[in-house]
Automatic annotation (TrEMBL):
Its cofactor is Zn(2+). PROSITE patterns: CYT_DCMP_DEAMINASES_1, CYT_DCMP_DEAMINASES_2. This is tRNA-specific adenosine deaminase. PANTHER family: CYTOSINE DEAMINASE, CYTOSINE DEAMINASE FAMILY MEMBER. It comes from Pseudomonas alkylphenolica. Its main location: cytoplasm. Pathway: Pyrimidine metabolism. It is found in: Cytoplasm. CDD domains: nucleoside_deaminase (cd01285). InterPro entries: APOBEC/CMP_deaminase_Zn-bd (IPR016192), CMP_dCMP_dom (IPR002125), Cytidine_deaminase-like (IPR016193). It holds the Pfam family dCMP_cyt_deam_1. GO terms for molecular function: diaminohydroxyphosphoribosylaminopyrimidine deaminase activity; zinc ion binding.
Amino acid sequence: MSSATVATDEFMQAAIDEARKGLEEGGIPIGSVLVHQGNIIGRGHNRRVQSGSAILHGEMDALENAGRQPASVYADSTLYTTLSPCAMCSGAILLYGIKRVIVGENQTFLGEEALLQSRGVTLQVLHNADCISMMQAFIQARPELWNEDIGV
């Protein structure tokens, strides 16, 4: 796993914009985009609260919004997510054979990064200050929603 402190690229910025959209809607600020050949083919944000959903984490919403894709598209795609992927989202990454994941931050929550890496997924954690501060503020303001989201 590598880390970088470079300027936020357009795809991570799109994931951050999705996270902010979720927060503005009264939800949990986690966003994600699925990128194939330099184009966003799916974008989403955590909509568990807004939709009363048990599964619409940011990554799951982005995958859903990308629609059905052939295995070759998933294998050639990169998933950007503002927060380290949980067990459910990591399972979807593995199921669909997504080989590269760019994570905004893993300081507030460390998901199944070791599992993903053990299965050949390349991870890059950006330690993005915007992602960290957004999640820290949300967790402090709404700990009950956060705990529900991660199954605590």
